[in-house]
Design a protein that fits this description.
alpha/beta; Spore Coat Polysaccharide Biosynthesis Protein SpsA, Chain A; about 15% strand
C-alpha cells in the first residue's frame, strides 16, 4: 500500500515506524508527521506492520491519506527487530529514523534529525532524540521515577555525547550505509527488548558515535504503572539474559541493580507518599525522599525480574521462544488500555 504518491523527489530521511495494535496511537503519530516543518517531499514514512497484527483493516484506516510519501510493508516475523530490518532495507533515504506507534513527533522532529545529520555527516554518527511523556497523560510518581534512568537516561547525558548504551529505538536516526556495515537487528535472539542495545554494542566496535539532540522530541503516549512494569520486568529479564549470553563480557545491568535491591533493607514507601510534593532538587530533603522512592520501586519489581532470570538460567534460554512472541503480541495488542487522558 502506498499513500502520498503525488509527492515527488528523493527524500532526505526515511521514517521507519513499527506498528502492532494501538490504532488510535498510530493515527495520531501519523497526524504528527502530517504537520512537520520539513517539506513533505523531504521525507517518507515506511509503516511496517508486525507479523502478529490481527486487524490489518484497522491499520489501513488509521493510516488514511497523508501529504507525504508513505508505504506500508509487512514484517517478516513478530517483533521490533524484524520490523526495523524490513523498514531500513526498504528505505530510500540514507538517513533512517526509527520510531514507534505510540511516539508522537513534535513539528520539528524530522527537520532536527535531518539537520543534525548534515552537521555530523560521518557515516558512523547517529542522532538520539528526546522521548518525553505526552502532555495529556497524568505523570505519576512512578513515571517520574522511570525517567531517572530505568526507561530512558537523558538527564545524565553531558553535552551531546550520548554513548552507545543509550540508544533507544523509539527516537533514533542512523545512516543506512552504516546499518548495512553493522548488519541487521538480531531478530532471532532478541525480537523485542534489548534489540537496539545489542545492535548499538555491535556498532560500537565499528566506531559508532551517538549524539543527543534534545530538540528532536517525541511525546510518548503510553501510561506506565508499577503493576505493568512488574510484569514487563519478566520479559526484560529474559531478554537481558539472552543479551548477556550473546555478550558475556558485558555485565547484565538490570540483574545487578535488582539483585542489590533485593539484598537491601526493606523500603517502607514513605518517599513515594512524599514525592508528589518534594522535588528532587530540594536541598537535603529532596535527595532523601527520592532515594527512598528509588529503593521502594526497585524492591517492588525485583522479585519478578529475578524469578524470570532464574527461569532463564534453568532452561538455558538463548533465543526467542513461542511463549516470548505470544507475550510480546499480547502486550502490544492490549496496549491502548494503558493510555488515558487527564
Amino acid at each position: 500500500m502506498e499513500a502520498g504518491s503525488g509527492v515527488s523527489g528523493s527524500p532526505e530521511l526515511t521514517v521507519v515506524l513499527s506498528t502492532l495494535g494501538n490504532y488510535q496511537g498510530l493515527q495520531r503519530v501519523l497526524d504528527g508527521y502530517s504537520t512537520q516543518t520539513a517539506p513533505p517531499a523531504s521525507f517518507e514514512v515506511v509503516v511496517v506492520v508486525d507479523a502478529a497484527e490481527k486487524d490489518r483493516g484497522a491499520v489501513d484506516a488509521a493510516i488514511g491519506n497523508r501529504p507525504f510519501k508513505l508505504r506500508v510493508l509487512n514484517g517478516t516475523a513478530p517483533g521490533l527487530s524484524a520490523n526495523r530490518n524490513t523498514g531500513w532495507r526498504a528505505a530510500e533515504a540514507n538517513v533512517v529514523l526509527f520510531t514507534d506507534n505510540d511516539t508522537i513527533p513534535v513539528p520539528r522532529l524530522v527537520a532536527e534529525h535531518r539537520d543534525w545529520h548534515r552537521v555530523y555527516p560521518d557515516e558512523a554518527t547517529g542522532v538520539l532524540g528526546h522521548v518525553r511523556w505526552a502532555p495529556e497523560l497524568h505523570i505519576s510518581t512512578f513515571m517520574r521515577w522511570l525517567d531517572t534512568g530505568f526507561q530512558f537516561d537523558f538527564d545524565k547525558i553531558q553535552g551531546i555525547e550520548a554513548g552507545w548504551g543509550r540508544m533507544a529505538g523509539a527516537n533514533v536516526s542512523l545512516k543506512r550505509s552504516f546499518i548495512e556495515r553493522v548488519g541487521d537487528f538480531d531478530q532471532e535472539h532478541l525480537p523485542y527488548l534489548y534489540e537496539d542495545t545489542e545492535w548499538a554494542y555491535r556498532a560500537s566496535k565499528a566506531g559508532f558515535r551517538l549524539v543527543y539532540n534534545a530538540r528532536a522530541v517525541v511525546d510518548h503516549l503510553n501510561l506506565m504503572t508499577l503493576e505493568y512494569w512488574q510484569q514487563r520486568s519478566r520479559r526484560v529479564a529474559s531478554e537481558e539474559y539472552k543479551f548477556w549470553r550473546l555478550h558475556p563480557e558485558l555485565e547484565p545491568w538490570f540483574h545487578r541493580i535488582f539483585s542489590a535491591a533485593a539484598a537491601a533493607p526493606k523500603a517502607r514507601g514513605r518517599g513515594v507518599r512524599l514525592a508528589p510534593y518534594v522535588p528532587k532538587e530540594l536541598p537535603w530533603l529532596g535527595p532523601r525522599v527520592w532515594a527512598s522512592v528509588d529503593m521502594y520501586y526497585k524492591q517492588a519489581i525485583a522479585p519478578y525480574f529475578l524469578d524470570a532470570w532464574e527461569e532463564a538460567e534453568r532452561t538455558g534460554q538463548s533465543s526467542s521462544t513461542e511463549r516470548d512472541l505470544s507475550e510480546y503480541a499480547a502486550e502490544h495488542l492490549l496496549e491502548p488500555s494503558r493510555v488515558h487522558s487527564r
